[in-house]
Write a structure and sequence with these properties.
It is a single chain. The chain has 8 helices and 5 strands. By secondary structure, it is α/β, with parallel strands linked by helices. It has a single domain, classed as Rossmann fold (3-Layer(aba) Sandwich). The longest helix is centred in the middle third of the chain and has 25 residues. Bound molecules: thymidine-5'-diphosphate. The site of thymidine-5'-diphosphate (TYD) has 13 residues, from helix 4. Thymidine-5'-diphosphate binds next to helix 4.
């Protein structure tokens, strides 16, 4: 039996972190064995690439090559082995983020990203993707209150509007896998939407 692969997506400031914890708690209460991880990152090598990615200036193609290199290591060492053991993998961002940020945000060619995804994922897609969708203006206000911005978080409203549109395109391309969460709702409201989606699947 192969485990479930659940990913969490959205623009910076959408508020997904709190809800990843809640999903983990919900699934643990039901007795599941869980792996919680993130991208870029999740292995020693991929975390090193994450540091470079977040703090060095580079063009869109270099970004894409770095995040997919990190993903390759992560899939091979962590995600695929956990799923093979029947564990549930909760991953904070995955390939949809590359389509959204490098594709939508940086204008990288969609087909090039599809080729990279095909090489790296070998046909393995998430079983469920929560897309925390929020107005980029609301997200910017939340970010300003929450923390010091990293390189990508400093980008402007136009950038995040393009990222959001690319998430919408990914959701249209894979409607069975995506669940759109209205992340402009209160924390409790968002939590209810997330739990409902799990309960709809009997998870
Ligand atoms: P995230 O972990 O959400 O940042 P934080 O810990 O600050 O909440 O994501 C890190 C950044 O990397 C985020 O701005 C999105 C970006 N990113 C890409 O541009 N492409 C990718 O493929 C991934 C996975 C992330």
């Amino acid at each position: 039996m192969t485990g479930r692969f659940i990913t969490f997506e959205g623009i910076d400031g959408a508020g997904k972190s709190t809800h990843i914890e809640r999903v983990a708690q919900h699934l643990r209460e039901r007795g599941g064995s869980l792996v919680q991880t993130r991208e870029p990152g999740g292995t020693t090598l991929a975390e090193s690439l994450r540091t470079l990615f977040l703090h060095q200036d580079m063009d869109g193609l270099t970004e894409a090559l770095l995040v997919f290199a990190a993903r390759r290591d992560h899939v091979q060492r962590v995600i695929a082995p956990a799923l093979a053991l029947g564990q549930t993998v909760l991953c904070d961002r995955f390939t949809d983020a590359s389509f959204a940020y490098q594709g939508g945000g940086r204008g990288m060619d969609w087909q090039v990203l599809q080729t990279l995804a095909g090489w790296v994922q070998q046909g393995r897609e998430p079983d469920l993707t929560f897309w925390f969708d929020v107005d980029p203006q609301v997200a910017a206000q939340r970010r300003a209150q929450a923390r010091e911005a990293d390189r990508l978080e400093q980008l402007d409203l136009d950038f995040f509007t393009r990222v959001r549109a690319a998430y919408a395109r990914r959701a249209e391309e894979a409607p069975m896998r995506f669940v759109r969460i209205d992340a402009g709702d209160s924390i409790d409201g968002v939590g209810r939407q997330v739990l409902q989606a799990l309960e709809d699947r009997g998870w």
